[in-house]
Design a protein that fits this description.
Layout (H helix, E strand, L loop, with lengths): L1 E3 L1 H15 L3 H16 L10 H9 L10 E6 L2 E5 L5 H19 L1 E9 L6 H8 L3 E7 L20 E6 L5 E6 L6 H10 L8 E2 L9 H9 L5 E2 L11 H17 L19 E9 L6 H16 L15 H13 L1 E3 L1 H13 L20
Parallel strand pairs: 3-4
Antiparallel strand pairs: 1-11, 2-3, 4-10, 5-6, 5-10, 6-7, 8-9
């Protein structure tokens, strides 16, 4: 691992996106979100994926400078067709709109179809928490997860994120897949030459998957097999719970926006699938006094953090604590990046040829939308 100053890493990623033709603001937002994943220790959703974004732009599946189509709108809701917009920067702008709705009306929701991979879901929920709100973010993905009792994938990793603030930066920030692991983790295992641990995925014959390369290939071409739902196999370990949550995500993201769901969401060999998102912000003061809520959050998080650990553990964590500590360390010491990933980034920067036709340079694709 090598340690790169956070701003330097963001600048390089932003330069890559701009060289691909994305407007400067979209390139910068996308870079910040990707680097945030690595800074938090979530390598599976970080800059190792930038080539897939680049390939998506080159293939015309990911587009910069797009103004999404408004499908339906009320004072507290917005339904969009993203028209293939860059999922990272679009999602940041959509969450800003949701927060603006909540500031005026107490809550705001947005469901989006025809978008692209949006990185770590927790980035968006924490935007709401920083404004004294509760934040929720969901996304469906290509079909990678195998329903309980099935042998083929029918839903994505379908992440769920939720954030709630305390005082002085205290934050409960849950960001989880509804499968027991993610494809990004399997890709990391492949890069490291390690087998898939038992209980994470099944092969097309329903038996445990071992080889990460074969598993990734089988999922890409929907040959059968895939990742197990949260809770693992069958009903013995409550896998039906993760299965149910994954379907819930498809309902809120895809069915509410009229987008693709289930096995209809397919990755290509070069890039990720067009997907659907859901964002929600709730102003805390529609429930109770904000300061009282945040004081109770402080008390709850302190109680969780100070629980005596079990014999095989050094301490007790709550959702988001590890990631916040890792992010703070990255700000001080640089973002930890595998040396080969850093070298690949620099090579990608040199290899990219500027597109003949620049993309639309609109500064904010959602700026013209009313609330």
């Amino acid at each position: 691992m090598i340690y790169i100053p956070r701003r330097e890493l963001e600048d390089l990623c932003s330069d890559i996106f701009q060289k691909l033709g994305l407007p400067q603001d979209e390139a910068r937002d996308s870079a910040e979100i990707l680097v945030a994943a690595d800074a938090r220790g979530i390598r599976s959703h970080g800059i190792q994926h930038i080539k897939r974004y680049a390939d998506g732009v080159k293939a015309g599946l990911i587009k910069g400078g797009v103004t999404p189509t408004v499908l339906r709108e009320t004072p507290v809701s917005l339904i969009l067709d993203a028209e293939g917009a860059m999922g990272l920067s679009l999602s940041k702008r959509a969450m800003r709109k949701v927060i603006a709705m909540a500031e005026e009306h107490g809550l705001g929701v947005c469901s989006i179809r025809n978008s692209n991979h949006f990185g770590i879901a927790g980035y968006y929920t924490e935007m709401a928490a920083q404004k004294d709100m509760l934040g929720i973010a969901l996304s469906n993905t290509a079909a990678l997860g195998v329903p309980t009792f099935a042998k083929k994938a029918m839903f994505g990793t379908n992440p769920i994120a939720f954030a709630a603030p305390g005082h002085n930066g205290n934050l409960f920030s849950l960001d989880m897949a509804t499968t027991i692991t993610t494809r990004g983790v399997i890709e990391v295992l492949e890069k490291e030459g390690k087998p898939v641990p038992p209980g994470l995925a099944v092969a097309p014959d329903g038996k445990p998957a071992i080889d990460p390369t074969s598993l990734i290939d089988d999922m890409l071409y929907q040959r059968g097999g895939g990742l197990l739902p949260l809770g693992a196999e069958r009903n013995v370990a409550s896998g039906y719970k993760g299965y149910g949550l994954a379907v819930m995500v498809d309902i809120l993201t895809a069915l509410c926006s009229g987008g693709a769901f289930g096995e209809a969401v397919r990755d290509s060999a070069v890039t990720s699938a067009r997907v659907c998102h859901f964002f929600m912000a709730l102003r805390i003061d529609i429930f109770r006094d904000v300061e009282e809520f945040k004081s109770d959050m402080d008390e709850m998080l302190t109680a969780l953090r100070e629980l005596p650990p079990s014999e095989d553990a050094s301490r007790v964590f709550y959702a988001g604590l590890k990631e916040q500590e890792a992010s703070d360390a990255s700000d001080r010491n640089g973002v930890p990046i595998p040396k080969n990933v850093w070298e690949d980034l620099q090579k990608l920067m040199l290899d990219i040829k500027k597109p003949a036709n620049r993309m639309n340079t609109r500064s904010d694709p959602l700026a013209t939308m009313t609330i």
